[in-house]
Fold each of these.
Amino acid sequence: MKSTRLPAHLEQARQEIEQIAREYGLDFFPIIYEVLDYRTLYEVAAFGGFPTRYPHWRFGMEYDQLLKGHVWTGSTIYEMVINNNPAYAYLLEGNEDVTQKMVMAHVTGHVDFFKNNMWFAHTNRKMLDTMANHAARIQRIIDRIGYDQVEDFIDTCLSLENLIDYHAPYIRRSEAVTPRPIVSDEEPPVVEGLPVEREYMRDYINPPEFLEAQRRKLEEERARQRRFPENPQRDVLLFLMNFAPLENWQHTVLEIIRDEAYYFAPQGMTKILNEGWACLHGDSLIPTDRGIIPLRELVSRRYRSQVSDGERQQTVYDWNCFTAYPTVTIHTRAGFTLTGSFNHRVMLASGEWRRLDALRVGDQVRIAGGTELWATQPARLRRRMPLPQVLATVSATTSPSLPSRRHRYHSAPTEVVDEAMATAIGQRCVTHPDHRALDAIRRSPRPQVVAFLRAFIAGAVDTSQELTIPCVSIELAQTVQLLLANLGVLARRIETTLQIDDPTALKRAYTTPSPTVTWTDEIVAIERGRADVYDISVTETHRYAAQGFINHNSYWHSTIMTQRVASAAEIISFADLHSGVVATSGGRLNPYKLGLELLRDIEDRWNKGKFGKEYEECDDIALKRSWDKQLGLGRQKIFEVRRLYNDVTFIDEFLTPEFVMEQKLFTFRYNRDTDLYEIASREFKEVKEKLLFRLTNFGQPVIFVEDGNYGNRGELYLRHRHEGVDLKMDYARETMRNLYKIWTRPVHLETVIEEKRRLLSFDGRDFSERRID
């Protein structure tokens, strides 16, 4: 049998990684690693990370989905880790050693979290054995009852597995165990009042109002006895286990489903999803399939354009603007300039990403060349002609209204910028550059751009200095530099003069599209300011070329993990408050981004003392940004967060307006007109409310058992705690149908539909609905 244990060199790496993790304060259970081929790994993943589960078709369906995702879309599970003592972790066979080492460092963070976080304190630490026991018990039931009948009941139970009280292990609640008869046929007792010896004194001792009060009191007591549980019960499955007419084997199956639901609950309570973007000044020019256009226009008009990531084209899918934002402007030796938000990231010569506020003079950055992304349609130029020329073009049969004296020009019809016009613009720009004409050239296809450059350079270049191109304005020089870079030609700019190092490259670029190329440039000056900034998000690589630089709009988790694990001192930064099965197939939440960035924000704030009354009451934005008390409490705070918080309390306590702005968090809504999801708001309050709502109860409806003897007929009455979102009626009806299978009597559900209270009912055959307000 093939060994699944770690090979010797990885076993040595494991010991070193775990020793480093312990030196920096991580405290975790012993970890047992197994290296599995991808088919076996997906089998284990389909079982929720456990090697053995009870037989059911959903596990086969999950395996088929995972395997097809791996084969057809390339999705890969790099590791899984089980909350157990000892913890079990699985690595994917065939990964590079550096990947396996990174995963092992990541696993130590998971297991430290399992062991020390209070929300996992009540979980079963021997769940590996328990799962195997559950599988054996259900298999014995199947052997006795039959697979089809047991499978059908498991289907019913799984459809209700979310109807538990996720906080029950941590909060003492009244349990739904008070024994009450479901249906009572007893005759109601008669109210006789106080005993009297003399009949004529009866009305005096027991006046009618006293007897009526006694009747009401007795009726209320009988109603209380008929209604059970005495308090609404959140754990619906427990109520069903206690009171539903279940056979013994059914009770066992329901108990197993409930136990496993509670085991997995803390893992669902500690996963977070978000993305972030980068911001540039609105005047930044970005090559698109509409031409080289200002970022401000791309955002304000929400173009779903193609942009270049420095290697291939990507699609823009999100746009946003922030006003009066702190900015950093960098200038390179070759004359490229970029202004962006202080947290915007650009690519260094080494391939790493670095924020603008972390750059220093002398740092080397990459410049993108040869992107060859041009407009697909010719631009149109609206020419302005002097007034006499305008009047001369007006037909003699018309009586045009003369313009006011302050207007010296009128607009003429637009003209398509073809190669002939592009040549004329290039010749004119040698001495008289026109902003509108330059803008039209930037929005033109490649042939027109080449025609413009040929004419302009031929007219501007001194024959004795053929590599030096003088320009009569900064805008002209910057435009020509970016056009040449897009063609794959590097031109160094000093003020209004361009210098081309390789004249043959220019000649080749005129006729042959250039392959993508990157150059290295040195930062020579850095400035700080404040301006409106704009952002976009692009698909796949999350980066785009603009102003010649390679810019990033997302700091995805694999890059973060790879960079963080390289330094032993930073291991705690990716002990990221996340747990459970790690999978990257489509449709699943990615738990890394928000948790990592918010943990880093907490560590930075507590290191610098950016908390407390003094900091919160400071109104000076510049002072708050530079605030640094050098407290060094960040690491201590991180461990406190690891111990005490789950996603809801984590977000509620530490999410700040500054963090929301920096990370570009947003809410979205579905637009029925466009059949698309669109950004609804970036306001801090709305973002926080939506995020907390999604995390609370995993975004699922909260259902209580109100009465197990509704109408004194043994019917089940449930209440939906409406929190602004109506139930999905198809889900609600199927849930009620499955509850009926277990309860065997009619099921009622109180909810709110379109702001009106409704009572949904199912009697085993038909659904009904009526207003109750």
Amino acid sequence: MKKQTVKSGGMPTRQAEVMALARRIMLAGVSAGAMLASGGTAHAQAAATAEQAEAADHSGVEEITVTARRRAESMQDTPIAISAVSGQGLQERGIDNVTQIGDFTPNVKFNSSVPVSASNATAAIFIRGIGQNDYQLSADPGVGLYLDGVYISRGVGNVLDVLNIERIEVLRGPQGTLFGRNTIGGAVSVVTRKPGQDLAGAIEATTGSFGRIQVKGNIDVPLAQGVYSSLAGFVHKRNGYVKGVVAGAPDLGDTDNLAGRFALRLEPGSDFTIDLAIDGSRTRENSAPNVAIAINENAPAAQYWNAAYSGASAVCLNTANPARLTNPSCFNSQWALAPYRHGGTFQTISTVFDTFNPNRYRSASDVNIWGASGTAEWKVAPNVSIKSITAYRKVTGFWTRDSDHSPASIIQTNSDWKQDQFSQEFQVLGDLLDKKLNWVVGGYYSSESGNHRDLVQIVDAVFLSGAALKGESLAVFGQATYELAPSLNLTGGIRWTQDKKTFSNENQFVVAAGFLTGAPLNPDGSGLKSGDPLMGPLGRTATIKDRAWTPMASLSYRFSPELLTYLSYSKGFKGGGFTQRVFPPFAFIPSFRPETSETYEFGFKSDLFDRRVRLNGAVFLNNYKDLQITVNDPKLGFAPIIQNAAEARIQGFELELQARPVDGLRIEGGLGYLDAKYRKVDIRALNAGVTTNTKLQNAPKWTMSAAVSYTIQAGELGSFQPRVDWSYRSRVYNDAVNTPLLIQDGYHLVNASIAYNDPTEKWGVTLGVKNLTKTLYLGSGYADSFGGITEGVYGRPREWYLSARTSF
């Protein structure tokens, strides 16, 4: 058994760096808060209590309640860098799934399609430059995604539809104390609406570009006194936006999704509630919209195809003959058809590859997800509550890639995925000393099992390169906030976590050696043959155990009812794991250690001018160690492998603005800055081409967004609300080695809409356009030197939509 231990050390003294960086953001934003602080420090002004703030003009900025500290409180009272958007805000932005919130959240980037995966239900989340760009079963995400307090442990199945959502919270920075492992970048918490006590409902239908048909609705049905239910449904169909240009090539990037959720709330007494929910979704789509950006016909696999299988080797191998670039039998740059065309036919020359997995090879991204959860809250005393969260989730999937994007069969994959998880969390919450001390303690347990049969074909060679994994996680935690003096609060917390993962190599062997037969590729120098293991003798398992202490501490001071400031330290860790892709074969099962992140942060939250302007900001310094990066190390082979290969320092700031300067006018804005640098790389990273001058992937220096809407009252006709949303991301490096073809320069996105509501606001219509300026941008990508293929997924082109909604 291989054991790994992560030990927490004392806090490094980096105050000078933190304060120097803090001055930058102070110049950018805190000056606005200082105008009221001068009056707020005089405690004669403190008579404006929180209750008076709540009674302010309803035309002010919306108050949002969050549960970032496991208790309901105003976002403005929470000393964490947090963004939150309500269900109404999601509707006004025309957002369909959780990945789209990255467009307007500072220092957040969502990849809606992960490199190497062909599943449309897999997203990579990066916050402040920290995340995980690999979806494989044996690697953990770097940002935790939660649905009603339930952690979703894998990237597959984390593209949640916006279905009866109350709000989405984005917590930036390590959240290791209350949320646990795999939140070193932050956490995204999706909270659904609970069933109401009255009969009510809503339905919305949408049509638009690419034959879009979408209907979603929800209804609350009270069943009896203290028994309330709700039902929500969602169906979305849309044609693909990446066109197949040859016979048999399907259109990619389509949508075919059906989802539903049933919730039941029981209130046996005034101090006891039980929330039960069952949710599920079913997608039957073509493969993810990957396209070929460039093709190198001199790569080993490309040359072998052109020589042995093209049927026109004399033409295809003669690089001086221009006819090869128009002969469809040849594999070369003629098939580099990015951004919105491809030539992949999803046909194979290998009957073994076509039939070995449970599903035959074809264009597909089929995913089934269902989950059940139960949350019970009991107020056992006036100042003590107990909460239990029990959940089970299951994901099955089948997806394929035609990685050469042509009628040839250079590199293709067929994935069969099964994964399920069970989790149980207990929390005890309370307050003491006349509510001067608020506390929470708890425990967490989860178990997970998964089986990923990742079948890979390279010309006529076929490998099973998957994972069979079992894991358990156990944690205990506690956090408390104490009022040291009026308006001065100290918060401290700590979590102990133990993770255990066991990897079996049962899905790691050569199915058909093909053209690699006889080559000295095995660890012992022998030739390769069908049935050979890829990771030591078949039947072997490996186990790793990670333990970590993740503390946090913060000091907050409220200068006035309108201005809160805080200084915090937090630590998080992401579990270790195993690499499931190796070639040539290894004599062992390769693993990697956990990575850790420590963040020092200064922030402020302010509500100005009778809550008509809200300005929140944070400045941070992060030490990021033992980075798990996905690289192609030529000394180890040509498969992408995860290794702990670097340390980094990330610093930056965020500002968020919401304003209601006059009735009807709403202004929102966000600004994020990242200065992310490798401080050290080891030989494993250097071998793959990563140096201290390499830029961190998915860490754009600047993220900016703005939105303006205005409600025009038209008397008995109702009201109209035009809206414009703009966002900007500076240069993004889409892989660890900064492949030039995968670098996306800075780009702007503009969405626009106009909504109409009748005088009763019971029904309305919205006409909108997304990507109004037809911006072309690369969302993710991967470079395969052995196959000679550089591929990627581009953002959707300009699209219009028309929605009609009604409620009762």
Amino acid sequence: MNHTDPPTPDVLATAGPNGTFPAPEGDPGAAPATPGPRRKKLSLWDRGKFLLLLLGLFAFVVAAQVSGNPLMSWGDALSIEARSSWWLLALIGVEVVRQVHMYLGERSSPYYVFWTDRVFGRAETRMHRYNDWNRYRLSRAAKWIVTLVVALFVYARLEHVSLFDAVVKVPNAIWSAIPLLFQIVLLLLIVVGQFAAIFWFMSKGGVEVYYPDDVKTRFADVWGQDHVVSRVKENVFYLEHPEEIESRGGYVPGGILLWGPPGTGKTLLAEAVAGETGKPYVFIDPGAFQAMFMGVGILKVKSLFRKLRKLSLRYGGVIAFFDEADSLGNRGQLASGFNRPGGRAAHAATRLGAHGWRAPSYADGLEDFSGCNGVHYLSSRAQAELYEHRASAAGRPGFGADGSVQAGGSVHRAVMPMGGMMGGDMGTLQSLLAEMSGLKKPRGFLNRVVRRALGMKPKPPPKYRILIMMATNMPNSLDEALLRPGRIDRQYEVGYPSKEGRVKTYNGYLAKVKHELTEEQIDRLAIMSPQATGATIKDTVNEALTQAIKDGREIITWSDVLRARVIKEHGLPDDHEHIERERHSVALHEACHAVVAYRLRRNMAIDIATIERRGGTGGFVASVQLEDSMFSWKSEVEVGVMVSLASLVGERMFFDGDNTMGVGGDLGSATMLVAQSITRWGMGDTIANWTMMVSEGMGVGSVDADRPFGKQVEAKLQELYRRTEEVLAANRREVLALTHALETHKTITGEDVESIMEGTVGPTVDGRRYHEPEFVDIAEEYHTSALQAHRGGSDDLRDLPELDRVAAKAPAQSPQPTSSTQAAAEPE
């Protein structure tokens, strides 16, 4: 019986005649009397459902009398059943009295209190001695008994037998109806089975199970990611020894997200976890949840987790790896990533170069510069800043004719859209989230359905040891709910390996082939590859082996490795030859870049200098970082600008104030670096972050009222231009020497540049010859002929002077490792 807690006897004693509680005597200002407890009002259905059941049964027995005898009238049937089924009428009367009783209890507090406290109080007290589960079981059993009695009563009336005879005839009737039941079930199976079979077949695929003996990868096979491996080992320990943390009130972390650039070993690390633990490894293909029909993705998710639970119980644990997890999508707006813990937005697409994913290229929209590349000689961080600014060009301010800033929108960091609104289809991602959170539900049909139907408590669910690992190179596209603790408990960045990691990776892959590289050469190779991943290192070694086999050798040499680096990092040159006059200007252009970079840079080294054309690039000078630094200084930015300006300064210096259009890319890089250093990095006359001021709608017109922004940029460029001019003027011989070497060899290494600048012997070029007194006269004479050809004074250049090699006369010395070879420089 539904009621509130009855009042205590002393409270009842003070209740008024209407069940109200009067205010205390002598307190006229007290609150007015409040009504006493009453029965909670029931809904119309809860109040009348039993009365409707009894009336329905009585109407049924009357109708059964009429249907069995065509001469029977409804009045006669009603009088007959009133005598024979009087107990139904009695139950109806009792139910009517109960309804009146509840009606009075809802409106009269004394009436309700009397019956609940004096009459039904003891019975209620006894019932409350049972716990909730036992009361639920008794209620369930009573409902089953009432249902069976009603069914038997209806069957007895249909068969015109007594209730006791119906109990005897029911088994025989069920047995006789079995063929018909089988036909109905078979028909349902045929109809439903067609759809079930279609969806079952479509729900398969995209999931590969590797059993313990199938996975041979171990943590020792993951090179260059020691810091990540050490953290993942913690998860493996708790997966194999869950009692260590569960006995202390904790729980085993069940999810790991591995994020970082492609090729850094995320998938290999997941395989190593499976190999070390000896657990089954379930690989989920990125397109596993993509389906033609809506709902198939949900079935795939449920089928996957059923399989994971079975494998977990059978083997004591299982590893589930979702590769390219960004394919799961996002349910709502794209996650910004800048507010997430761990700084994962540092690897947003607009920061590719800054944090070492890869340097921006023309395909990224930097600009289609003709002539010099314009960005190769810049640091990766400077390249990334340029890319970021140009990616957000649609919202940046422009410069007016007077050098002032024209507001064109707010400058902000561009976030490239990633992911979609959903995963495979509507509900797939939601189903995945629910399954990852619902690993504690009871298992088995008998346990969940049959035991509950029999009023038995289901067995507690087992502890499923499922470690879910996900990998992505676009973490910003993942749904926030997917990454919350409880689903993904750990998030590890698998970034580019450090120098030590690269050395270890090179040693690992080189150990699988025959080679003659020394430890010093491998160490130099690691320095030359600051953004190399495990995949790129493996590919470079394989390409080096290909080059060796092409030359008829089985042993990889240093030149093979360097040739492979040039092919993989810069591509093969076009089958194009510069005309002689243009060849000289391009070589001088790149020589100026190389001289300024060599003289001024301390944190970077020249990797390669070339005048061989690749696409729209006539030539370039590429540099590599010597240290894995995180920040750039003002002096480093200024040096980068001077390296950019070197082409313009050199062309004007050597060609009587004239210059090619090929300096456009260099000037764009220099201008953008200076502009950003003034507006964002406090490297100009002002300290305020002008970019932030523009985005907030403040100070749109200028950075300084006396010195507009454009004038500050121009003044800084002019200052750096003069400093660059001084460097090139002091190194005129070196510029002519590098120009001659580039025209002769087309491609030279960074060590060759050093040998020319210092007068030593390089791997390809003998730099001592360029320091002999007669070289300056020869070089100046040749340049004069090139200048006359440029002015139109002659049709052809003089033949390029050949310098006699003196390397054979030089004392024997082991050449330093280089980043390219003559074989790599020559077009194939």
